[in-house]
Each structure stands twice: as structure tokens, then as C-alpha cells.
Amino acid sequence: MKNVLYYKSKKVVVNTLIHLFLISVAITCLYPLLWMIISSLKTQDMIFKDVSLIPHQFRLENYSRAWQEGGFGRNFLNSIIYTVSVVFGIVIISSMAAYAFSRLRFIGSKWLFIMFMAAMMIPIPGSFVALYVLLNKLHLRNTPIGYILCMINVGLSTSIFLLKTFFDKMPKELEDAARIDGCSKLGIWWHVALPLAKPVLAVVIVFNALTVWNEYILALIIFDNRQYMPLQVALQTFQGEFVTNYPLLMAGLTITALPIIIVYLLMQKYIVKGVTQGAIVG
Amino acid sequence: MKIRQGLENYIFVLPAVTIFAVFYVIPFVWVFQLGLFEWDGISFTKTFVGLQNFKEILLQDRSWWQSMWNASYITLIALTFQNILAFMLAWACDREIKMKNFYRVIFFIPPVLSEVVVGMVWRFIINDIDGANIINHTLAGLGMPNLVHNWLSDPNTALTTVALVHCWKGFGWGFLIFLAGLQTIPRELYEAARVDGASAWQSFRKITIPLMIPIMILVAILTVLGTMQVFVLIVSLVGGEFAGHTSVPVLRILASMRGSSRFGYACAQGITFGIVLVAISFIQYRFSKKNQ
Fold this sequence. Notes:
The structure holds two protein chains of two kinds.
Chain A: H1 2-39, H2 61-68, H3 72-103, H4 109-121, H5 127-137, H6 144-169, H7 173-180, H8 185-196, H9 198-214, H10 217-222, H11 231-241, H12 246-281
Chain B: H1 2-34, E1 37-38, E2 47-48, H2 52-59, H3 62-93, H4 100-107, H5 109-112, H6 115-127, H7 134-141, H8 155-183, H9 187-195, H10 200-228, H11 232-238, H12 249-259, H13 263-291
Antiparallel strand pairs in B: 1-2
Helix pairs in contact in B: 1-13, 3-8, 3-10, 6-11, 8-10, 10-13, 12-13
């Protein structure tokens, strides 16, 4: 009897310690974000005096100022446009290729696939230098379309890998049935394969959306004009202009971070799946 | 008919292969080509210098090796502190415990944020020495007010601060992968060990650790590749190379390209760095093969 009590109380103590550990890390994760949001609601002269977590009054005008004076509205729209078009491009292009690598026979298919996989594993840290030169030659530098094409290329290999792995495991019967009904290859890809691949497509969409929204280096070297820049690069310029206006900067950061946090919270199931699957890739 | 069908199949891969050829293969080849030239990126003539650029990197460029050392330092902290923390958290979550999902969701918030946002928020917090910087408050409270200062503007602490913020942003990746790995270990193994009288520590050492080694190596490879190439975080956190104190290879490449307009040299630096990265992950990979 004493023994049972001993083990029970030991378990309670261990569990409490574990919770304390986990909660303290969780607080460390959230603290900077809370501080960011709270500071974005303060005024410039309050920001260093009022260190309480809840400000005395909420000033939403920082947001409208960042949006208009800071030109954030424009950059926000840019980020949305880039993210949507790149993700759309990747979904179409990589699913077509993955379907072909999985199901269709053609000369060189194996080698092409190996090439894509090799690209996924070999890091070329200086490639942005050559990319800059290339885009200059093609007259695509400082254009949205140049950036979009580069970013589609960035997500291509991993997306092809994820989708091909899925198609390889997919039963062939449905496609056979469609073929007998006279469906063309493109028709089968569009009407049969893509709808079945929805769970993987969700992973592909979420991950590429995160990548594009957060991308920095290519946007930095490709764009000269503020009007084309996505949020991440515009923030840097913004920081230069409003160097001491912290509430305004924090409002800008919140505008940049909030969409991604919301998307993450809604789609976190797919993100967990993607991380564990993507880990196997490496 | 057969040829037509064959061509039809190529239509599927054509868009992917075209984009890949133009935006991956061509830059890849050009990096190696340009590495042999001295070129300012604008003029029509490039001067062929052979392996001169590489010689300069290996023998004369001290700031390059400083940046390699800095990146290695950050990587070392990430490999130890960040990954051990991630593993402990995953181990703590791998049981019947309340709010498991809540922790998992929270721990992965830093990784989904951009490095620009993370860097700027932490910069604001750390620079605000008397306000938001709670660690300074704690230090003062513990009777060590002489340690209270702005860690980012002190050359001695800037790099470590960068490394710690990097760990803050990155541990969620390792956590998720470790947790997924731990969950694949059959519960029966632990049950059997307990029936045989093994203590918690013994079953941790004899069951958990050996089965997790492949995953640990995987996380280690991902950590090295990711951390060695860090630079956006440094730009937004410190503002740049801070006179070499926080310079990293990618920042050096960027400086060669945009600062001193030496495109060939920048490419040569990129190749040198790429070879180092491939070599490291190859060694780690071989190591994992040996262990299995």
C-alpha cells in the first residue's frame, strides 16, 4: 500500500516538473511576440517608460500609419501576389512532373528525376550571384515575373519528391478505369490524380507558402524599386526610414508576422506532417 | 503513334525541366565558370585569372576564415544547446501528458516566423536594456548588475547572442523530428524493460538512445546545413557584419558581390563554402551508415 502511494506521488512530482519545464519554454516562445504586439499599440514616448505588459491605452493608429505612410499596404499586396502565384505555379508544374515520373514511360525519365533530387541535396551558397547575372541578361531583374520564376524553381525539387512518393503508392485501378472511359493522360492527371493527392498537395501548398512569404535574399538582390518589394525586404528599408519609431516598426512586424501565424495555426496538422516527411528527404 | 505518345509524355515534364534548366542548371554552371574570372558584374570584359580567386580565399582572405569560424561557432552552439533542448522537450512530450498538443503548436511558432521578424523583435527587446530585456532584470535582481548591458553592441557577446536567438528560432524543427522519431519506438519495448526491472534511466539509455541515433544524425546534418548558411537573422539582429565580429560566409559572399563588386571572387567563395558543406554532410552521412 505504501508502495503504491510512493509511486503515485513520485509520478505527480515528475509530471509537475515536466510541465514546469515545458511551460517555461512555451513562455519563452511567446514572450517576444506578445511584446511585439503590445509595443505596436504604444506611442513613441510611452514605449520605453511603460514597461507593463498591458498598455494603458491601445493605439491602433500605428497600423494605419505603417500601412499608408510606410507604404506597407503596397508591400503586403506584393507578398500576397508573389505567394499565391508561386504556390499556384509550383502545384501545377511539380504535380505534372511528379505524375510523369511516377506513371509515364519516356526516355531519360530516371535521369531527370535524379537530377531534381540531386539539386535538393547539393547546396550552392553563391548561386544568387549567378542568378543576379542571369536575370540581368534576361531583363527579368527588378521585375515581379523574374522573382516569381526564381521562387517556383526554389520549391520545385522538394514538391516533386513529395508528390512522386505519393503517386507511387496510389492504386492504379482508378486511372485504368478513367483510361478505359477514354480519358486523355492530361485528363487523368487533372481529374483523377490531383483530387486524390489533396493531402500531399496541402503539405506542398503550406510549405511553399511559408517559404515564399518569408523569403529574403532573392528579393533583396532582384528588386531595386520599393514598389515591387515583398514585406521582408521592405521591412529593412522601413527600419532605415523610421529608425527610432519603434511602435511603428513593431506594427510593421506584426503585419508581416500575423498572416503566417494564422495560416500556421489553421494548417498546423499539415506542417507537422511536412516536417516529418521532409526530414526523411534529407 | 508510339512516337506521338512519347512526345506527349514529355509535355508533363517540360515546364519543370525548363524552369529547372534556366534557374538552377545555368546559374550552377555559371558559378563555377565565374569563379575563374575577375569581373565587376557590369563591364563586357572578364579577366581570366584561373584559380587565383581560390588561392586568395585559401591563403590571404583572413576575413573569410573569420566568417567561417563565426559560423562554426554558431553551429556548435546549435548542435549542442539547441538540439539537446529539442531532444529533452520531445522526450518530455512523448508520454501521456496534458496539453501535449498545445506545447507542440507553440514550439513550432518561432520556426514559421521569418528571420527578419525574429531578428528585429529580438533586437528591439535586447536593445531596450532597462525595459523589455527581462534577462537583464533577472541579472540585476540576482545581484549581478555589472553583467547588465547591451549584448548586441558588445563585440564580446554579440556572436553568442546571435547564436542563442538562432537556437530560439530553430529548436522547434528538431523538436518535431525527434518527437516523430520517439513515437515510432514501440511501447512494448519499454513495458518489457520495466517488467525485467529496468529503471527509467536504464531504459532511456538502452532503448531510447540507440534507436534514436539515426534521427539524431539526421537532425545534426540539417542543423549544420541550416546554421552554417545563416545570415538574414544577423542582418536584422545586428545590422550587418559588425566589423567582422558577426560576419558569416554568406554575408562575405554578399559583400564581395555588392560591396566590392567582385563577382568572380564571390562565386569562388560560394564554391569553397559549398564544398565544405557537402563534405561535412557527407562525413556525417557516412558516420550514420557505420552506426546502423
